[in-house]
Design brief:
This protein has 988 residues and is mainly beta. The protein has a 13-stranded antiparallel sheet with strand order 36-35-37-38-41-42-43-44-55-56-62-58-59. Strand 45 and strand 46 form a beta hairpin. It is globular and about 95 Å long.
Amino acid sequence: MPNLRRIVPVGAALLSGLVPVSAQPPMAPDATVMALDEVGVYAVGCAYAGQAEQHVPLGWSGFFEHATGVACEPFGTQHGRRAFLLHSPWRGGTGIAFQQFAFSLPESATAIRLRGHTAMRTASVADSDGVTFRVYTNHVKALEWHQADDVWRSFDLDLTSLRGSTLAVRFEVHPGPRNNASFDYSLWGDRELVLEGFSPGAPARPPPVPLALSNVWSVPNGEVAPRGAFPGATQMSLSNDVVRFRYAGPDGTLDYQWRRPQSAGDGLWGVLTLEARMRGDGPVRVPLATSARLAWTGAATAGGSRWVATNGACTLVRAFALGATNATVRLTGRLVGKSLVFDAGCDRPLVTALDIGTWGPVLRRRQVTTPFYSGTVYFLPGQNLFVNAALDWTASAASAHSGGQATYGALTDGTRNRLRERAVFTAAWHLAEVLPNIPHPPSPHLEFLADKMVLDNWGGRFTAIAAHLTLLADYGTAACYLDVHSAVPPWFHVDCRAGEPGAGQFRRVATVHRDLWAFERATHGGPVFGEGNQHWYWSGLLDGVEAQFGAGWPGNGGFDAPLSVDFDLLKIHPLQVNHGMGYYERWWPKDAHTNWGGAPPMIVLDQYRLQEVAYGHAAFLGASTYATLPLAWLDHHLVTPVMARYGAARPLEILYENHGAWLDASATARLPLGGSNRRVRVRYTSGLTVTANGASNALPAGSWTLPQFGWIAEGPGFAAGTVVRDGLVCDVADSGNTLFVNARPARDWNLSSVRRVAPRVLSVDPTGPRQFRVSYQWQIQNPPGQDCRCFVHFCSQGAIRWQQDHHLNPSPVQWHAGQTLDDGPWTVTVPPGVPDGDYDWLIGLFDPATGARLSLIGVDDGSQRIRLGALRLARNGAAVLFTPETRTPADRSAWYHAHLNLDNAVVDFGAVRTDGSARLARRGNAWSLQTWPRARAFTLELDARRFGQPARVQSVGGVQGEVIPLPAGSRWRLPLNGAREYRWLHDG
């Protein structure tokens, strides 16, 4: 039952084996609504079937823990809700995984509720058999259900009777009756403990000292540690067996205290604590690296430890014994700006993994969404600090990194490389100061690429590609080149063959990739592009990528992606010119609503283009659009003038709109639930300011009004964007010497290939072994208007097992709106080699001249085939059973009406009035004009003060060589005659 909402009182069925409340310190809530995904103190662990529970340190968060495969971490958003992943164990067996919170519930609360949702991750639904979700309150099972879909299912537990007492609430997942944990990405959504009537009051915090963004741009300084924005001083001291690292600057002080390990419960580094004091605020304390540990090839026993102090650094030397073998681990700490940096090494190749731990545990920690960064940044509300803990991928001898864990895999001869890692712990009062520096030099082609748009082509015949590019060139566009290796992190391909150079180390992969791009740059004599996702590791080593999500924001999550641009603009943008937001099919969700089967709707392309511009990327047309002339026309003339002004520029200010105020990323993250990142304003060194509106309501921006997915880029003598004119969504780009306008008339810009034709099975009758008779029916609202043939596919796992293609009578070219036509009956014979089983029954229309399929109304399988239902064969084909498709099809045609000028009205752009699209360019005293479409003689009126009022206009490639302008008040009307270009002189 999807979306079930339950009100469940606490019962009394006591269960054994749960984490006792006494083992977990209860927390005093500090807010009326405690968002549990932000609570940083909790117990987490797992239990294999029939075995005792295993625990990790309080507050542990990670993805696929090394030994068990358990995952426990925030997981972005899904279908509009914040998601938290809790994955059951799958390494070494299966069983439960749990996360448990303990609270001291206030007596003053008038009502207490625990509410949230459950779902499976959309991308894993097809591969998982579902997960059993459970909730326990004080050892009582309050909820249990099995779920295999991605529809959020709600729960609401009434805990009012527990006010004034202690609550232990445990969230648990199990792989279900089959104990199959494959692809069990089980999500908890928007979990909250609501304390009605409780008002704890929040302490007032002063704002931090403002910083200059130019101080945190990526620079090739050899350091991954984040750049500090202030000129602080650092010092190190060793006294009374405690090492102290101190940063002092105009923004405040950071004092790290490092004590040697005193007990088995201390972390690898011993005990680390930060005492921080922001200027104008009180002191706070934060523990860190409490869960840091080493994994060894065998049972290891810790021995003694000692300090070795050097200039500006201190080394903790630790002894370990593995049977008769002794190993020495050296942990050297130093301050780099605000970052506490540790170099870790071992003299014996006996370490299999290093987990550096993280910050906390603290009462609350809020993950800060950071698209394109694969690490995790937190804001600690109670301490008013931004923190990051990361491994330096440029200083590692590991086989792989995963979050804060480095893995040292065995080579083919069983040996391992010796531990060598660098851990970076950063705390600051500004988000920008905890983002890692990318230490590579910038691309030498930034200026060249700044105004280059990228076209994506995945194949096809060379002659057809050449013809498309030739046609685009006729409209004043150009094209460029692509490579692949930057889509993955450095540890994607590691050679573990003993004896090979760099065997078992991903640094060898990084070196080879770097050399490959250098070779391609030299050989190609120009820029090298790549694919995106994990591209931040490589930025600057190549010149640009298609910047798909996948790191810091889920792949296929473009519809829900925030405009959180700081990491991209501050760290990646200074090094290379990225394009697009990824391949379209990896940007939008994979569901029936987005199987466009051709050019996407304008509103979808508007959202994609909005993100391109907000993130400072170059324009990109995917494989389904690169050869669509009007889309190339629009993106080239609208976006490339903006790219030329930000492509090689750098951001000076990044602000987000929240309740009418424009705040920087740090102030936004401090707002309840992290504020909103749906509207952003970026000011560049070039003088350009970009304002982008990803929110659902219109945004005033100076003299402009921005619709949802609208934007405006303004600079000296320049303005361009997707804006509202005369109540309609339109496009304009004006630099003075050039002007581009687009009224978006639906007659030209409804690029849908969808035809409102709905097929269905009318009847199915078995007629003998492996044979049946079928009749179809076609409900026609919008006829194809062309000759088509019907194809019918019977498929298993997408592969065609047999077909029943046939001609239609009457031909679709003769169909009319409102008709319902019967098709058949037809006799279908199942080929003898087809085994019993279930087969998808798919139907569609195609053009016999080109093979192109039409998009129809129904449940589309993603390849412009409508699923009629399932055909089951049994008893060696003697039994035939048809089950019709029951899902409600999405009416994709509605998408294609949004953001279009449906009445084809004339729009007043000031200097131009038109119901079409035009681009004007001036060189000296000569004006040149091109139009889209060329074939339609739409209205085009030009302001005489700006464009003059010529007696004649030269018409290049038109029906006549000249046209005579017509007076239209203060404007003049240009009669269009299909010309490739119109030219005239104006001396004004």
